[in-house]
């Protein structure tokens, strides 16, 4: 059975490109265009992994991550921060805030797939 990945990003083009790339690699993909919708989808769909953008309307990525970590349904779901936002020490910041990994956009598909494979085993 294919592992399910939830992509939460407000940029429709990024969501669609990522969906095609992940589906062609054998993953099932569900998506949301803002943090609130993404959190609801995470509760309903129980994905194996979440790709989470930071800069979004309604709830930003950090707020969404905080909600996910505080709910027993999603607390253990691996989350990769997936953003174009520039940060100092992004890996450290992402982990301190509760994420499992970080990848900068634009991303190399091989790098993204390696991070996903590492977290999903």
CATH superfamily: Response regulator
The count of helical stretches stands at 5
The overall number of domains is 1
Multimerization status: single chain
Q: What's a quick, concise take on this entry?
A:
By secondary structure, the protein is α/β, with parallel strands linked by helices.
What does this structure look like?
The chain is an alpha/beta fold. Helix 2 (35-45) runs parallel beside helix 3. It has one domain: Response regulator (Rossmann fold, 3-Layer(aba) Sandwich). The model has no long low-confidence stretch (mean pLDDT 94). It has a 5-stranded parallel sheet with strand order 2-1-3-4-5, sandwiched between helices. 31% of the residues are buried. It has 5 helices and 5 strands; from the N terminus they run E-H-E-H-E-H-E-H-E-H. Strand 1, helix 1 (12-24) and strand 2 (28-32) form a beta-alpha-beta unit. The protein is globular. The protein has helices spanning 12-24, 35-45, 61-70, 90-96, 109-120; strands at residues 4-8, 28-32, 49-52, 79-83, 101-104.
Topology:
Layout (H helix, E strand, L loop, with lengths): L3 E5 L3 H13 L3 E5 L2 H11 L3 E4 L8 H10 L8 E5 L6 H7 L4 E4 L4 H12 L1
Parallel strand pairs: 1-2, 1-3, 3-4, 4-5
Helix pairs in contact: 2-3
Descriptive key words:
5 strands, globular, 44% helix, five-stranded parallel β-sheet, 121 residues, Rossmann fold, alpha/beta
């Amino acid at each position: 059975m294919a592992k399910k990945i939830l992509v939460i990003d407000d940029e429709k083009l990024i969501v669609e490109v990522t969906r095609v790339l992940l589906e062609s690699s054998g993953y099932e993909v569900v998506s949301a265009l803002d943090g609130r919708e993404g959190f609801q989808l995470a509760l309903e769909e129980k994905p194996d992994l979440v790709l989470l953008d930071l800069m979004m309307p309604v709830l930003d990525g950090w707020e969404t991550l905080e909600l996910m970590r505080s709910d027993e349904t999603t607390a253990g779901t691996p989350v990769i921060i997936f953003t174009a936002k520039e940060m100092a020490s992004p890996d450290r910041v992402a982990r301190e805030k509760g994420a499992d990994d970080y990848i900068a956009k634009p991303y190399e598909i091989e790098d993204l797939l390696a991070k996903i494979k590492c977290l999903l085993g």
